[in-house]
Amino acid sequence: MKVCIAGAAGAFGMKHLEAISAIEDAEVTSVVGVDAAKMEAFAAEHGIPHHTTDLAESLARSDVDCVILATPTQLHAAQVMQCLEAGKHVQTEIPMADKIEDARRIVEMQKKTGLVAMVGHTRRFNPSHQWLHNKIQAGELKVLQMDVQTYFFRRTNTNAKGEPRSWTDHLLWHHACHTVDLFQYQTGETASQVQALQGPPHPELGIAMDMSIGMKVPSGAICTLSLSFNNDGPFGTFFRYICDNGTYVARYDDLEDGHGNPVDLSGVAVSFNGIELQDREFFSAIRERREPIASLSRCFPAMQTLDRIEQCLAAAG
């Protein structure tokens, strides 16, 4: 599997590069970035044969089977379309789009082309959440409530590596997207009720720095999500699953029960790296000519729910 990574030198581009290095029969043959000199040095450092600042150049190459987009949120939908139109399979980091109309357009495009088009909803692949999903599917657990905290200290425009960012991040369409999708994936339902509040916008960034979201699915399970770019402390997302048969706390690829006892995840997957597992799924879906677990179509309901939440925020003023 010969892969192009767009945005390869960014925080998540590097995560994909590291993940692919652990996957047999997969290699990065092309990288795309905005700075030509930086990409030349990056490609040389990592032994990648081709680099460019133009995605179209990579898409025209015969040694590119598929593309992973680790680019700014605002580019995702247009670049997914560009990849599909070029006949390339594509995986985009979340969100697939930051407008419901764009999300709907790329879902329709994927159906027309029949190519594999996937979204990097890593929470579907983290061993911690996979373990819980397997228990839920087997009828051993039922989610009553998910209580989730997504916290960063990000009062300047920087990425996960603390480096300056050329685009502005967003609590709703990026960070809340993870949890909205995961809640609906774990319950197997789409939210029937949503509510949301947000704090004042940052004077320079123009985005809300604090947000609270509530969701409920028809079966009665609820989700409470708190998000902040103002939290001075450990950053990341922490999930508490309150179930009918136990409580569990997930932190990325780790899982504990409600009393802090580690849960053995050794038999869940071939790796403890959620990014690697999602990339493995992408490549497997291409080889097996099937719909991936996190296809555009399967993740589209999260976009619909985010759109409804955005409408709630707009109505609240």
Automatic annotation (TrEMBL):
Keywords: Oxidoreductase. It comes from the Bacteria. Signal peptide: none annotated. One of its GO terms (molecular function) is oxidoreductase activity. Residues 2-121 form the Gfo/Idh/MocA-like oxidoreductase N-terminal domain. The keyword Oxidoreductase applies. Residues 127-269 form the 4-carboxy-2-hydroxymuconate-6-semialdehyde dehydrogenase-like C-terminal domain. InterPro entries: Gfo/Idh/MocA-like_OxRdtase_N, Gfo/Idh/MocA_oxidrdct_glycsds, LigC_C, NAD(P)-bd_dom_sf. This is Oxidoreductase. It comes from Sedimenticola selenatireducens.
